[in-house]
Amino acid sequence: MIGTSLSHYRIVSKIGAGGMGEVFLAEDLSLGRSVALKFLPPEMQQDELAHRRFLREARVAAALNHPNICSIHEVGEAEGRDFIVMEYVEGRTLKERLAAGRLELKEALQIAAEIAEALEEAHGRGIVHRDLKPANIMLGPRGHVKVMDFGLAKLVKDAEKAVSQEDTLTVLTKAGSTLGTLAYMSPEQLRGEAVDARSDVFSFGIVLYEMLAGVHPFRESSPMDIAAGILNKEPAPLSAHVGTCPPLLQETVSRMLAKRASERGPGVQAVKAALNALIKQIEQPESSGPQAAVAGF
Fold it and tell me: Are residues 173 and 276 in the same domain?
């Protein structure tokens, strides 16, 4: 497809692929800008369920308008293939950044605060990401966050109304896979139970732990062992990896990684409040009050 044109887009290069699509860098010939085109993989084009989910991604993501969420420009069709035109985000993924090692405390907190902003916007609209992980978080040239790929998002009418087990476990490929990425799933996702915004909080907790410690909190040698850890084990305290850890930070991460969704606090708003309080402590230590005085934690 490289070098070909679809509609008024010229495909320049392939920049990624995942369970719900291939992504290409393209030039918008009408507006003279770079965009990202996401196509449903050819083998899934005739899969009606996958096709519906692909189009749902466009509808869900297009409803979100926030500086920390990748924007959707349009949905098109050419040569029998649907595609989504997305904002092209320069930079690297958080996964690529973590390959170089753990982040310094202030950098990790600032990135996490912007992730929290994006999730707060989505959750406020009843949208659950369901696949939050470092590979879906872009860091722009100036370090600002863009949360990508709401392809597994589930639009729920009520925060307490869950998707069915059948929907949670529906396979997307012939080989079969559970929705989401196993290493970043919440316990309820792994069990095929109801999921809501609190599932994203758990996944976010794994991402935050990994940024701070440089290792996955449930690191094991096999995917099934990771799953067992998520379901049954408590991660080592952050101090085991970073030495001294602010009590509020450990408390926040521990709350986010609670096995029971009901024990993860009131939502991502409380996580954001704690993160901002910690950033303030770093920037203005002399003016910060007691670390525990943060609503929700």
Answer: yes
List the one residue out of 178, 177, 181 whose CA is nearest residue 202. 181
- Report the candidate in 141, 36, 35 with the shortest Cα–Cα distance to residue 97: 141
Report pLDDT digits (tens) over 239-264. 999 888 999 999 999 999 999 999 99
Q: What sign has the CA pseudo-torsion 148, 153, 159, 162?
A: negative
CATH at residue 62: 3.30.200.20
pTM: 0.84
SS3 75: strand
Joined together, the tokens standing for residue 124 give 């406020």
13 and 78 share a domain? yes
Q: Rounded CA gap, 194 and 186, in Å? A: 11
Secondary structure E strands in 130-241: 137-139, 145-147, 154-155
Does residue 276 sit within a domain?
yes
One DSSP character per residue, 182-200 reads GGG--HHHHTT----HHHH
Q: How far, in Å, CA of 11 to CA of 2, rounded?
A: 5
Catalytic positions: 131
278 closest CA partner among 213, 203, 212: 212
Q: How many CA atoms lie within 13 A of 250 on its CB side?
A: 14
Q: Could you read off the pLDDT of 78-102 as tens digits, one per residue?
A: 777 788 898 999 899 999 999 999 9
Rounded CA-CA distance 114/272 in Å is: 9
